[in-house]
Design a protein that fits this description.
This protein is an all-beta fold and 425 residues long. It has a single domain, classed as 6 Propeller (Neuraminidase), CATH 2.120.10.30. Helices cover 1% and strands 41% of the residues. It has one helix and 35 strands. The strands form ten sheets. It has a five-stranded mixed sheet, with no helix packed on it. A four-stranded antiparallel sheet has the order 8-35-34-33, with no helix packed on it. The chain has a four-stranded antiparallel sheet with strand order 9-10-11-12, with no helix packed on it. β25 and β26 (309-314) form a beta hairpin. Mean pLDDT is 75; it is low at 1-61 and 249-256.
Length: 425
Amino acid sequence: MRWSIWGVGVGMALSGLACSAILGIHDPEIDGLVTTDLPDGAGDGRVGDSATLGDATADGPTACPANRADCNNNPADGCETDTTQPQNCGSCGHVCLACEGAKCVPQVLASGGGLDYTGLVALDAQNVYWASPGGKNLYTVAKAGGTPTPKTAADPMDATTLYVGPTYVGLSTFSPVPGLKVLSRASGALVANVQVDACQTALGVVADETDAIYYAHGSNAGACGTSPFHITKRTPNGGGGFFETWDFAAGSYNTAESEWLALDAQNLYFVGFRDTAPGVYRISRAGGASSLVIGGRFVGAPVAVDDKNVYSIRNNDLGGIGEAELLAVDKATSGVTVLATGEPSFKVGGVVRASLVIDATHVYWTADDGADDAGAVRYGRVMRVKKTGGAKEVLADKEAGAYGLAVDDGFVYWSSAAGIKRIPK
């Protein structure tokens, strides 16, 4: 039996950005140039700023025309900057590899070679990792781009989950041997088959700062598909122990549940059913009883956390209730802020098909827009919205097969049918 699982990319946004000055990508830490990314309204001319207003005149400020900006704040030379050029792409000081229509053109980090690039994405300080959903392997490529490197010489893996921890890479796989695998980041050597599951139900996995891993999986008790599920914690050598048995009630179990796990300093968060109550749950990293953060149908939804909120996608469409919503849920009060609605990827056949990651200021996701007019291509987008709400931004459009997603200090990375790509924030 093979579970119908879309998959999860749990990426770690680590510092240490490696950038190529040869490729013309600006990195203040590397090349010494300074690009100030001011908050909206602070006058840097970015999307959402009132600072597209240019030069003062006797009658007051004058708005710059489309694709022009006053970047030197000098009334004498007017809106002197062309924002269709790479050094000021779309806004003052926003440096891109290439610029078309005042938007950055994504940099392709890896493509071709007969590889499957539509899987999951995670990062360390130097590299992008991705795992194929089609039995190709686990690969890495330098953040500046290059030739993909397989991390294992054998055992091609169909991966449903990927994480990159301090020392190890972990994958939840459904073939050729279902279960959870942990590999050395340095050598690619297989450390352990941490969990081998005859029901092929290894689901979400995430690691903490100590390299301890937390994962959801089937128990193999009873018939596959209705057997109890567990949240397990183990150290890389196979130690650790079970947290709690999660019994999915007969008839309410959904194969897309518990694919996404997230950690903060105290708790593990996950999407699932507890008996018949669906929602986003948390459980202490030390184990114990669970608690419901927010109820609702989060079928197959990704989850991310920061020090204040849990972010996930509530699918209200299953019962004709309404649009699916990207939510910020206050961890202390369970108060809800709706950040975005209307994305087709939030509900594909009743199951969310989107990756979701966060940084200090924004929530990012990949959006599956469905097939084109001829029904031949599934287009996608890379989107973001401020954590405080506001207008959605399209970072990249017409990205067929866009799915896996990760961010670091300077870039957004994603997988697509055409390859692994990134774009400056």
